[in-house]
Design goal:
Blueprint (H helix, E strand, L loop, with lengths): L30 E5 L2 E6 L1 H6 L3 E10 L3 E10 L6
Antiparallel strand pairs: 1-2, 3-4
């Protein structure tokens, strides 16, 4: 899917890119969760991979001004399992 920068004049983030990022950003990809009833919890990517995974196939993204893209398959642990 090509990118047409002129279609996104309203967008403050330029260039307007939708390139996939299959790898976590550089540095430490550990996520920090803050709960109102307990101390913060750090979760590493390896921790997430050990949890039961749920996969949703044939997902489409419909966005105003971008049209429809997909199908995609999304997967990972549910928020409740985290």
């Amino acid at each position: 899917m090509g990118t047409n920068h002129s279609d996104h004049q309203h967008d403050p983030l330029r260039p307007h890119s939708h390139e996939p990022n299959p790898e976590p950003p550089g540095g430490d990809p550990t996520m920090r969760f803050e709960f109102p009833t307990r101390a913060e919890t750090l979760i590493a990517v390896a921790d997430l991979l050990r949890l039961p995974q749920v996969v949703l196939a044939d997902c489409f993204i419909v966005s105003t001004g971008h049209g429809t893209s997909g199908p995609f398959t999304f997967g990972g642990p549910t928020l409740l399992s985290v």
